[in-house]
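Running co-folding for magnesium ion.
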Amino acid sequence: MAETIIEVKNLHKQFGDNVILKDISISVEKGEVIVLIGPSGCGKSTFLRCLNGLEPIQGGSVTLHGEPVLYGKKSLTKIRQHIGMVFQSYDLFPHMTIAQNIALAPLKVQKRDKKEVEEETLKLLDRVGLAGKADSYPNELSGGQKQRAAIVRSLIIHPDIILLDEITAALDPEMVHEVLKVVLDLAKSGTTMMIVTHEMAFAKAVADRVIFLDGGEIVEEGTPDEFFDAPKTERAKQFLKTFTYSD
Amino acid sequence: MDLTFITQHYPLYVKAAVLTVVTGTIGIVLSAIVGLICALTRYYKIPVLRTITVIYTELSRNTPLIVQLFFLYFGLPKAGIVLSSEACGIIGLTFLGGSYMSESILSGFQSIKKAQIESAESLGLTRGQIMRYVVFPRAAAAAMPAVSANIIFLLKETSVFSAVALADLMYIAKDLIGMYSSTTESLLMLVIAYLIIILPISLLCSVLERRLRRGGA
Ligand SMILES: Nc1ncnc2c1ncn2[C@@H]1O[C@H](COP(=O)(O)OP(=O)(O)OP(=O)(O)O)[C@@H](O)[C@H]1O
Ligand SMILES: [Mg+2]
């Protein structure tokens, strides 16, 4: 029996009168990689933000291991230790070195041992090809390197799931690959992830399940093969036509 | 120019300068504390306190220090509250400086992008931790130029302390001019005394600004 990490039931989200997400239900199982795709402005980022309580929701529920994710509540800081998040704009803290960025949450939030955190920091940096960058400041790194450091910063808290929101969208094309490689590697090692991306070839390679969001609803859901090669809905077909992708 | 006059009277200036520096420093430190508290109530939009802060800021910024001092020194005794000249000077300077510091510190807080705060939130940091580790260090760096300008401004403002009989530099200079008609010498010493106080502080502030900005934007 698979273990459910995140369960979303009938989620409803609006900004003022503007309904963004209607009646969305998804459950994410341990080890699963879900790719969320859809046209710009369809609410992908908003959806991810609802999952870790960065946005209030107007209906339905989000639970992590059965614990409700409640916007603005004290319990959130605890829940967030189980959810890693990486945004599009590398949001490393510019006044801290890469190692300090990475060690902040394990030391201050999880109160882990300094030595152990240092060792894991170096190990993870090495794993994403950033050995030797521990003492650099973010502005001394390229965009791709910053994004890999941001991934490490979310990995080190040992989250049950990592949410990735278009983490390559702001990168120069030649840096996209090095970041996607890290994510593919994580997927292979069984990391549970929910990924928003516009990189279709990557989506196809990494996903266990593809969810196509449009007009605030889940329009289609399936394996990458089903979705990319034989989309069932007209809207998905139209959407895929706007991408020319190669494997 | 009478050099003997200068050598004779400069100890008076030293004493007054010390008084200016001491009252000025206390007033500035208190201003920074008041400013920080006001900035926090506005940044976190704490109800009621925030409104009080806004009213205070308007009152403080839109009245001259000399009027505030007169109120403290000549007005309060009518209500039975008698304060020493020093206390009036320090309280007046703090009342004025608190609002200037508050504006500078608040804009420092506000310069930290929402995405930075959200990524700290995502890591599970509490509001206090986010302030301490993410917002404050960079807000301090961002606010430092404005805060330094306030420090210099407030030090210069101490020159109206003589109006409430505080024997500061201005007071001594006026006194000597009145007594000996030594306008040139007295004013020269006054200018030099202020320069000796303010220049090093000005320099110190710019060093601090540079140090705080380490690590880049
Ligand atoms: N804070 C906000 N206040 C009001 N409206 C918002 C807010 N954030 C997002 N929206 C609106 O919600 C809708 C969904 O935005 P969202 O950023 O989730 O889309 P997206 O699918 O991530 O788009 P993209 O692919 O361009 O990143 C948009 O119409 C956007 O204008
Ligand atoms: Mg988005």
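Result summary
Chain A has a mean pLDDT of 92.
The longest helix of chain A spans residues 173-188.
Job closed.
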